[in-house]
Amino acid sequence: EVQLVESGGGLVQPGGSLKLSCAASGFTLSGSEIHWVRQASGKGLEWVGRFGSKANSYATAYAASVKGRFTISRDDSQNTAYLQMNSLKTEDTAVYYCTRHAGSSYGYGLDVWGQGTTVTVSS
Amino acid sequence: SNVLTQPPSVSVAPGKTARITCGGDNIGIKSIHWYQQKPGQAPVLVVYDESDRPSGISERLSGSNSRNTATLTISRVEAGDEADYYCQVWDTSDDHPVFGGGTKLTVL
């Protein structure tokens, strides 16, 4: 079964750090473009960043709201992607999802989503 | 511009047809995708590339797209269709998804 499972969420103080994991099964992460999307309580979906595929040279990209604070990486030996979050702000409080771009073209959507992990930034 | 505008809410009686719109500049020339999200759950891709359905998605869900408005149509609405629905396109400048604000579908 194709699956993504996030972990690592929790409560952290403003200015703190947290590292989320996204473990894949049923497919190889290295062949896919992986995105992180977050959702604050009662709000819509917000793109956070991506680790690209071969089609875009495995490049990372980030939303302006997290650029310089968040870093996405991938460990192919573990078939796992990571979201390192530093200098956390209260407005980063959200459920964080990792998700897979189904193909290498814009004709495909995000076809596999993890269950989400909750990050709460509060003093 | 990749701003996508959705109505906050749509209400429909069981057995009727629900139409959820997604507006954006020249959206008709873009591939649009739709997600369903039920409370406490992750989003699920229900329509991709305007009108294609992933395996396992009901044929009652269909999509269309023209000029500045894309539409997700749900026929013979059931109580289980009650959820938030999001449209999405790709920002081609740096390959990231852009989401609409979401529409809450209420089944009366």
Q: Please tell me how large the radius of gyration of chain A is.
A: 14 Å
Structural classification of chain B? mainly beta
Query: Spans of chain A of 5+ residues with little confidence (pLDDT < 50)?
Result: none
Which outline of chain A best applies? globular
For the termini of chain B, the CA-CA separation is: 35 Å
Query: How confident is the prediction overall: mean pLDDT of chain A?
Result: 95
Tell me what portion of residues of chain B adopts beta-strand conformation: over 45%
Q: What would you say this structure looks like, in words?
A:
The complex is a heterodimer of chains A (123) and B (108). Chain A has no helices and 11 strands. With 123 residues, chain A is mostly beta strands. In chain A, the strands form 2 sheets. In chain A, strands 2, 4, 5, 6, 9, 10 and 11 form a 7-stranded mixed beta sheet that branches. In chain A, strands 1-3-8-7 form a 4-stranded antiparallel beta sheet, with no helix packed on it. In chain A, a hairpin with a 6-residue loop joins strand 4 and strand 5. Chain B is mainly beta. The interface between A and B is medium-sized, with 26 and 26 residues.
Show the helix and strand layout.
The complex is a heterodimer of chains A (123) and B (108).
Chain A: E1 3-7, E2 10-12, E3 18-25, E4 33-39, E5 46-51, E6 60-62, E7 70-75, E8 80-85, E9 94-101, E10 110-113, E11 117-121
Parallel strand pairs in A: 2-11
Antiparallel strand pairs in A: 1-3, 3-8, 4-5, 4-9, 5-6, 7-8, 9-10, 9-11
Chain B: E1 9-12, E2 18-23, E3 33-37, E4 44-47, E5 61-66, E6 69-74, E7 83-91, E8 96-99, E9 103-107
Parallel strand pairs in B: 1-9
Antiparallel strand pairs in B: 2-6, 3-4, 3-7, 5-6, 7-8, 7-9
List keywords for this structure.
heterodimer; A: 123 residues; mainly beta; seven-stranded mixed sheet; four-stranded antiparallel sheet; 11 strands; 50% strand; globular; B: mainly beta; six-stranded mixed sheet; 9 strands
Concise summary:
The complex is a heterodimer of chains A (123) and B (108). With 123 residues, chain A is mainly β.
